[in-house]
Design brief:
This protein is an alpha/beta fold. The protein has eight helices and ten strands. The strands form three sheets. The protein has a five-stranded parallel beta sheet. The protein has a three-stranded parallel beta sheet with strand order 6-7-8. Helix 1 links the parallel strand 3 and strand 4.
Length: 255
């Protein structure tokens, strides 16, 4: 079970709601991935669209928690304003905080993220910030009251996989809040590695929405999360420079 703030989730896979060919495919992917939480970009969707054309009509909110995000915000001020709009529209204090610092790489703005997070935590939000894989920044965000930290694996939508496992391992080791690896994974093996490193969950969108078969990829991602989590807690064998026989050599029959 994954516990964040006052909520408990049975799934450690968090999916997005963007870039799908249609809402029906999105819904099928959410079902195949068995996700318990999805992100929703408040600035990029029309929540007042008529019934049947509203994205919320395709999210089963009895099973799936909607996590609004501030995607598209480039300043702390914009992010805070968007967060308050999201709380009003969706009646939730939960928020994935994004403050982008560079339009080409989409890397987060560390200073802007900290500034916005401080204000939103004071305002009663449950803040889950998208951040770079910086252990010091992640520690500071946890210290000011963020409910989790969400370090990137690689640039958003890049599919490059985990570029810096050493930093993620440090963040996980030092963490006092859940660590959710967010952005840049491309396939199920990337997700499994994140979980083997000790991440509490993985958030992804493009790797599923942009796959040739999105529904099959959503299922693969779910299985990758499960496999990585089980492997982490099963305890892998030590790495060795030389081989060692699978069967003992004591008591061999001699010719």
């Amino acid at each position: 079970m994954l516990k964040i703030a006052d909520r408990t989730f049975t799934s450690r896979l968090i999916l997005g709601t963007g870039k799908y060919p249609d809402f029906a495919t999105m819904r099928a992917c959410h079902e195949a991935g068995e996700t318990g939480m999805v992100t929703l970009a408040i600035r990029r969707v029309d929540l007042r669209a008529p019934k049947g054309e509203n994205i919320l009509d395709f999210i089963d909110r009895s099973k799936i928690h909607v996590l609004p995000n501030t995607a598209g915000c480039y300043t702390a001020e914009d992010a805070v304003l968007t967060a308050r709009l999201a709380r009003e529209l969706l009646d939730t204090p939960w928020l994935k905080l994004e403050v982008i610092g560079d339009p080409d790489t989409l890397f987060p703005d560390s200073e802007g993220t900290l500034e916005a997070a401080r204000e939103l935590v004071r305002d009663g939000f449950v803040v889950l910030p998208y951040v770079s894989d910086d252990p010091v920044l992640c520690k500071r965000l946890a210290d000011i009251g963020c409910a989790a930290v969400m370090p990137l694996a690689a640039p958003i939508g890049s599919g490059l996989g985990i570029r810096n496992p050493a930093n993620l391992a440090i963040i996980i080791e030092q963490a006092r809040v859940p660590v959710i690896v967010d952005a840049g994974v491309g396939t199920a093996s990337d997700v499994a590695l994140a979980m083997e490193l000790g991440a509490d969950a993985v958030l992804l969108n493009t790797a599923v929405a942009g796959a040739r078969d999105p529904v099959a990829m959503a299922r693969a991602m779910r299985l990758g999360v499960e496999a990585g989590y089980l492997a982490r807690h099963a305890g892998r064998i030590p790495r060795k420079l030389y081989g060692s026989a699978s069967s003992p050599i004591d008591g061999l029959i001699r010719s």
